[in-house]
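user: can you give me the structure for this one chain? tokens are fine.
assistant: on it. calling the predictor now.
[tool input]
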Amino acid sequence: MISSVVVGEPSVKRYYRYNPGFCVGSTSKGYGNFSVRIPGDAIIPEDKITRYLLVHKTRSDKSKFLAQAGFTQDNPKALKEAIQSLVATGETIEDRSNEYGTFYQVSGKLTGVNGITLAVVTIWLQRQIDGKFQFVTLKPRKET
């Protein structure tokens, strides 16, 4: 079930669509900071991994970066599992909303098949149409 919730002081309202089972925390007044978690059954399209992330591109190539941790076309399942592991423990931060839904970022480290870790930011969309979460992309996280 998808619900809308008003979050914040009455003068500054934010409306969030959420699956109640995936929102945690609030202030004692019943409104405040909700922490959204990407659910374990979030959609990670196979094509996003096998035809985009692990394929060499002349522009915005991510395959070379991911290969440092041993993620290749030969083991796309390993990358999917590493992404799922990252979002299970990483903090989810709301990014922006548009007509397609609300975008979230989850930052953390992907542990590769060779034991090397990569600092990344994953981007997720909670779809407006059905409230489901879908993986959009990942990018190297710039260390500050």
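assistant: here you go. The chain has two domains: 1-36, 39-140. Residues 1-32 have pLDDT under 50 and may be disordered.
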